[in-house]
Amino acid sequence: MEKILVIGANGQIGSELVEALSAQHGAEGVIASDLGANLHRAAQYEQLDVLDAVRMQRLIERHQITQVYQLAAMLSVTGEQSPLKAWALNMDGLLHILEIARERGQAGAPLRVFWPSSVAAFGPHTPAVATPQTTIMDPTTMYGISKLAGERLCEYYFHKFDVDVRSIRYPGIISYKSPPGGGTTDYAIAIFHAALRGDCYQCYLGPDTTLPMMYMPDAIRATIALMDAPAAQIRVRSAYNVAGLSFSPSELAQAIARVLPQFEIRYAPDQRQAIADSWPHSLDDSQARADWGWQPQADLEQLTADMLKNIAAQKIYASRVSGFIA
């Protein structure tokens, strides 16, 4: 029986990953952990600071953990505000879990590790369209630098110590269940809330800034599928490109306006524009498709309709958009 630890479980991805893993393995098979209070009814919970290696090791031993999803990180925008803290959190958290996995493997108790990379690991000299799996990587943010360094660490620990570590380069993640966490692509969540409030949305990126994105259900499926795949099929031990869909703010606004015709958007690019300009427009994920069968499901129209329907169902918007809810 698998026993799974999710670190950073209160975050955007972690909160939904815990639900999906609990549905697959049962509440007794999943331990959610984070710095704050328990937000999870579907799993057991332990308070944990990813920088506390001693407590992390004791927790893993006590619960006889077989898989760890290490999601705790400081994202691109917040990372630029506190770059040293971002480096310490993003790198030391990964190193702690890789070292624990190395020691447990040598002791005959192997630990499978998931750690998320990001398209932020690419940079201005990376081919922007259909970015290859292996290419130039010259990130310009502390978040991206830490992700590139983390990819190298993951590959090193696999080849040097046979640690079964797996990773995805996440694009921007879009979800209606949890708030954004300080990333450059957060506009693609905030825009839906503005539309349902009846507000004109002021976008901090230019209208034609195309970025790779992924709907949360696809991100969760990709993550679990990668971790469930037989080790022999995992041929990339840095991080896999995984694509969902690519669009610009203007294309997303047009999709929203087809459902809510009164929606308006204005553009006022700020410092986040420079970050977005250094990232790819689209990803070549043929390696993930070939190795472990990755296939996205959501397109822009489906994503838009689903986001609007589910956000509208929240009480804060129900009276304003009651005619929209199906």
Describe it for me?
- It is a single chain.
- With 326 residues, this protein is α/β, with parallel strands linked by helices.
- Helix 1 (12-25) links the parallel strand 1 and strand 2.
- The strands form four sheets. It has a six-stranded parallel beta sheet, with helices on both faces. Strands 6-8-12 form a three-stranded parallel beta sheet.
- It folds into two domains: 4-171 and 215-241, Rossmann fold, CATH 3.40.50; 173-212 and 245-282 and 298-318, UDP-galactose 4-epimerase, domain 1 (Alpha-Beta Complex), CATH 3.90.25.
- It is globular, with a radius of gyration of 20 Å.
- Helix 4 (83-106) runs parallel beside helix 5 and helix 6 (187-197) packs parallel to helix 8.
- The protein has helices at 12-25, 53-63, 76-81, 83-106, 142-161, 187-197, 216-228, 249-257, 272-277, 286-292, 300-312, 315-318; strands at 4-7, 30-34, 44-47, 67-70, 112-114, 117-118, 165-166, 168-170, 172-174, 201-203, 211-215, 240-241, 245-247, 265-267.
- It is built from twelve helices and 14 strands.
Secondary structure blueprint with pairings:
Layout: E1 4-7, H1 12-25, E2 30-34, E3 44-47, H2 53-63, E4 67-70, H3 76-81, H4 83-106, E5 112-114, E6 117-118, H5 142-161, E7 165-166, E8 168-170, E9 172-174, H6 187-197, E10 201-203, E11 211-215, H7 216-228, E12 240-241, E13 245-247, H8 249-257, E14 265-267, H9 272-277, H10 286-292, H11 300-312, H12 315-318
Helix pairs in contact: 1-7, 4-5, 6-8
